[in-house]
Design a protein that fits this description.
alpha/beta; TIM Barrel; six-stranded parallel beta sheet; three-stranded parallel beta sheet; 15 helices; 44% helix; globular; binds 5'-deoxyadenosine; binds iron/sulfur cluster; binds FE2/S2 (inorganic) cluster
């Protein structure tokens, strides 16, 4: 193996730091150096996060979206997609059914859907916490600071807002109705409000370079996220990027592995997108730095309609089946399912949280 790669990986493993050039270099490694990178990330994961894998139950509660991200099937311009919204009672029932499956956290995710007032979401959050004792992650896109504050006061623990790409030029070309500056502002607001912040990016977007990807990792590190979701871009035929190339499994795994070296205490999910492009994708991520899986607990009749990208896994599988499937994957790797709520191991989030 080239000594050069080995040196960079050992340095990153020891210092949890790398500059842009070092990251770019690692993003282009292959062969033995690549195996060494994955092994180093797996070791850092074990040392800092242990062998337990955290499960987050994902509820896709509305596929309405007022935005037009060039890559996403839920974009407002996709007029033939039937849209659905779940009400509070349905969301509570889905979460209630996830508790006996062992879920300690639910993630409420939707498009940019202003139908749900801040008060509605606050009430749902409150009830999930009080009636079901679940940790609550919200993922409803960009909202006003007052909304984020209300939800935090209602007990929301975490907020997931992917930055998608930290390449400002690429960001603006993909998001005709959103601004990179505002995305950053939302993320820093969430951080100030005391949320455990999740962000993340896609890998292999058209026009994305290794320099852009290095910027993604540096951005995540600078924001000091508690979770980073990194998945391959998958072209959706119902979007302007229908004919684009998809992101590769290998480059996505490299991004996850480097993220682990740079951010030893950050939760890193083995993403559904990775599992959708490679039947062993999630397993590969779990041995290259990842320590979280987010199984879908949305009822089957809605899953198909949450078609962000094509060939998404688990469309015909129910929540109990997915829970079993994931349990099997985790034990086949010699790992265990985590017992607790899976809060960030960083000190400020563990004191008094249990
Ligand atoms: N391929 C992969 N991931 C996608 N997302 C949206 N569209 C795609 C796609 N075509 C991801 C984005 C977004 C999340 C809801 O899904 O990262 O944040
Ligand atoms: Fe809407 Fe999110 Fe899809 Fe963008 S990525 S179109 S905001 S659902
Ligand atoms: Fe849904 Fe495997 S996680 S079937």
């Amino acid at each position: 193996m080239q000594k050069e790669y080995e040196g960079i990986i050992n340095q990153a493993r020891a210092e949890h730091n790398l500059g842009r050039e070092g990251i770019e270099k690692l993003l282009s490694c292959d062969g033995q150096a690549l195996d060494f990178l994955f092994a180093a990330a797996d070791q850092v994961r074990r040392t800092f996060m242990g062998d337990a894998v955290h499960l987050r139950g994902l509820i896709e509660f509305s596929n309405y979206c007022e935005s037009n991200c060039a890559y996403c099937g839920l974009r407002e311009s996709h007029k033939t997609l039937p849209r659905y919204r779940l009400d509070a009672a349905e969301i509570l029932a889905i979460a209630g059914a996830a508790v006996p499956l062992g879920y300690k956290t639910v993630v409420l995710q939707s498009g940019e859907d202003s139908y749900y007032s801040a008060e509605m979401i606050a009430e749902i959050t409150c009830r999930l916490k009080e009636e079901l004792s679940l940790a609550v992650t919200l993922s409803l896109g960009e909202r006003a600071e007052e909304d984020y504050r209300l939800w935090r006061d209602a007990g929301a623990d975490r907020y997931l807002l992917k930055h998608e790409t930290a390449d400002a030029e690429l960001y603006s070309s993909l998001h005709p109705d959103m601004a990179w500056e505002n995305r950053k502002k939302c993320l820093y607001t969430l951080r100030e409000l005391g949320y455990q912040v999740g962000s993340g990016c896609m890998v292999g977007l058209p026009g994305q370079t290794l320099t852009s990807l290095a910027a993604d990792l540096l951005f995540l590190k600078e924001l000091d996220v508690e979770m980073a979701g990194i998945g391959p871009f998958i072209p959706n035929p119902n979007t302007p990027l229908a004919k684009a190339q998809r992101g590769t499994v290998e480059l996505t795994l490299k991004m996850i592995a480097i993220a682990r070296l740079l951010m030893p205490q950050t939760h890193l999910p083995a993403t559904t997108a990775l599992g959708s492009v490679d039947s062993k994708g999630r397993q590969k991520a779990l041995v290259a730095g990842a320590n979280v899986v987010m199984p879908n607990i949305t009822p089957n009749k809605y899953r198909r309609l949450y078609e962000i990208y094509p060939n998404k896994i688990c469309l015909d599988d129910n929540p109990a089946h997915c829970r079993n499937c994931i349990g099997g994957i985790i034990s086949s790797l010699g790992r265990t399912v985590a017992e607790g709520a899976g809060h960030s191991p960083k000190e400020q989030f563990t004191l008094g949280l249990g």
